[in-house]
Each structure stands twice: as C-alpha cells, then as structure tokens.
Amino acid sequence: MKRKYEQLLKDHFSQNNQMAFIAGPRQVGKTTSCMAFAAQPHYFNWDSEDDRRVILNGPAEVADVIGATTGRTIVLDELHKYPGWKNFLKGFYDTYAHKRFRVVVTGSSRLDLYRKGADSLMGRYFMYRMHPLSVGEITNTKLLEEEISSPHPISKKNFSALLQFGGFPEPYLKKNTRFYNRWKSTRLKLLFREDLRETTRLLEVGQVEILAELLKHQAGQLVSYASLARKVRASEDSIRRWISVLASLYFCFQIRPWSNNISRSILKNPKIYLTDWSLVDDKGAKHENFVACHLQKAVNWWQDLGYGTYKLYYLRTKDKREIDFLVARNGKPWFIAEVKSSSQKRVSKSLEYFKTRTGAEHAFEVVMNMPYEDVDCFAYDYPVRVPAATFLSQLI
User: Fold this and answer.
1) For burial by CB atoms within 10 Å, which of 227, 257, 309, 349 has the most?
2) H or E stretch including 338?
3) How many whole angstroms from its chain centre is CA 147?
4) Which residue pairs, CB below 8 angstroms and at least 24 apart, start in 109-118?
C-alpha cells in the first residue's frame, strides 16, 4: 500500500536541497517508502558487506558507483551503525550537493540518538519520524496544507484489524492471526538480540527483556521506577536508563504531565505507552495506547513538517482529577482528550474542569465503540463526545 511518507519525500525534495533523515521502528516500512518515492533509486545498506565496502572507500566511491548524473536518488540504510557516518555524509553533501543528489538516510533507531555536542550536519538535513499505520493514513494518503483534515470513513473491518494487529504494515495487511503471532515473535527477538546489542552494547539484555515485558502490562500507567526496580532486581537509575534505551529503539515512548496553570498537578512521573499497541492485553489500556500512538504520530508529523512546536502531555492532579491527553501547540494547550471504550451517560466532568483551567480550544471524549460519523470534531469549542474512528481520521 502507498504510505503518506512517499508523498512527504517527493514534497521534501521538490522544495529542499537538504538530505532527508527517516527514523522509525524496525519493519515500519522505511525502506519500502524510501525506495518507492523515486524511480530507480540507488540503495546502499550498511548491513551488506558489498555496500559497506563502497561506503568505507568514501564519498567519491559512492558517487562513482551511482554515476555523476544530476538528480540521482540515493538511499543509505542503517548508516548510523558506521562510526564515521556523520563525517561521511558531510563530505558527500558538501562535495556533491551542486549535483542535486537526493539523499535519504534511514535508521531503525533514533538517528538523533548519536548527536553529541555540536552537530556537524546542522543545516544539511531535515529529520522525519516514521510511525506505524494510523486511521488517518489508511483513509487519506494525501499531504495536507493544514494540521487537521476533514473526516474520512474507515470500515469497521479495517478499524478492528488496525486495533488487533497493530499498525506495522505487514501484519495489518495480512490480517491473519497465525502470521501475526509469528511476525511478532520474530520482530521482538530481533529487537532485543540484535538492535539492543548493536546500538547500546548493553550487557543486561535479559533484564531489559524482563522490563519490556513488565511495561506491556503498565501501558498508560504512571511509571514507578522503584516498583520496576524491585521486580527486575536492578537500581532505579538502571531502570530509567533502560527505558530510555527502549524508547530510542521505538519500543515505547513516555509522555509527561502538563502543570502550567494547574494547581496541585503532578510534576514528575511520566506515563509510558508502547509503539505497538497490539502488544497490550488489557482492553481499556489498549484503547488508550491506541489513541496515544495516533496523537504521538500527529505531534511528530506536525513538528517535522514545520507547522510549529507540538508536544503531548497528560493531566493529573494530586486529588486524582485526570485527563488522558493534552496536545500543546507552541507552548499553549490546543486540545485535550479522554479515551473511553464505550459511551457513558454523560461527558466526563473532568473535560469541562480541565478545559476551563487550561484554556484549551477543544475537549474530546473519544469513544472507541461509537460508529463513524461524518462530522468535523474540531468544529466544537465545548466538551464533546466523538467517535474514535472519526476523530483519529482527522489526524495524520
């Protein structure tokens, strides 16, 4: 299937000379999208011995292999595993930028993880973060000129498959439980046995695997480093470090509390969510994680495309008032959202409370089992109950 990221790359190179960095989890479709956006791209994979030999011989060798024709597209996969990757790219870009080579660099761990001190590539690239499929991407592959699109319908079958099998393209498209189980097992083994060792050189891989298993059962909960440390038999500092490592490999992500203008707000503990919501067993937690992934994808997309500065938070006070999510735009609350598996008798009182306190423009009660409605959720400036299928279709 066509991904929105293919159009993103076309748009990027139609307007910019900078290289495009595409970072995202393993098997999310980075290479496929990067190879599909241009005709006959030249592909170099650092994990290939032949390609590695060419790269190690320097920029001139790569240019010789692809030919000196202006406008060639070059895809460099997993290049960040090469210790000298930044110097290589700087040399290649500075020498051959006048030929308008379209250079795409991909990585299954965060490329910005390796930026220490001054960034020698500053001004030579733009970063784009690639996420699993979402309702908005399945229903509309066109690039938008604005943050929010009009709603687009998704079938019940596709919505259920996305929730059950996750947003990684292969299991979602196959919609086969036996294939999904085998795919999931293989992917997790590669994540822990290869990516974790290669990227971090951690020796405590077994303990990190135990931690990852525990996080599956704590999606959407406040992180208790002390509790996790006792269960994993490690120090709290190690737990913090290992969670950061898992986040760098896109296994999970954290969101922190919003505290501006909220009296008695919680100031420290983050919440944690999995990038692959299909790994979460509890129904309510999976639904919340599903929406969290959509919102995280949206704030990354809006920021990467230059719409502004966006961040995802949650709201919680010491007297246990809580809202699942707050999206801030340029430092100010834009909208808040509370996820429900099914409709309640009335909209949550916390929505009105926090909308007033934060000054957010919109407040949504996002209901998972409500059927799609062809309405613009963002047309309302008061707390409103909306179908998840509609609300999520208006995001990326």
Assistant:
1) 257
2) strand 332-340
3) 17
4) 109/23, 109/80, 109/195, 109/199, 109/248, 109/249, 109/250, 110/23, 110/248, 110/250, 111/21, 111/23, 111/80, 112/23, 113/199, 113/248, 114/80, 114/85, 114/86
309 token code pair: 């500065």
- SS3 of residue 329 by DSSP: strand
Q: Are 76 and 104 in contact (CB under 8 A)?
A: yes
Closest to 335 (Cα-Cα) out of 183, 209, 147? 147
Domains of the chain by start residue, with CATH: 4-129 (3.40.50.300), 135-393 (no CATH)
What's residue 118's pLDDT?
45
How is residue 192 annotated by DSSP? Answer: I
For residue 227, count other CB atoms closer than 10 A to its CB: 13
User: pLDDT tens digits, residue range 154-194?
Assistant: 999 999 999 999 999 999 999 999 999 999 999 999 888 88
Considering the chain, what percentage of its residues have pLDDT values greater than 70? Answer: 94
Report yes or no: 124 and 101 within 8 Å, Cβ to Cβ: no
What single DSSP character describes residue 99?
Answer: G
Burial 274-299 (b: 16+ CB within 10 A, else e): bbbbbbbeeeebbbbbbbbbbbbbbb
pLDDT in tens, 66-90: 886 677 899 999 998 898 999 999 9
- Residue carrying the six token digits 């910019």: 16
* Distance (Å, whole) CA 5 – CA 21: 12
Taking 50 as the threshold, does the pLDDT of residue 312 lie above it? Answer: yes
Whether residue 311 contacts residue 363, with contact meaning beta carbons closer than 8 Å, is answered with no
CA distance linking residue 106 with residue 43, whole number of Å: 11
Whether the CB-CB separation of 54 and 46 falls below 8 Å is answered with: no
Bridge partners of residue 339, in order along the sequence: 366
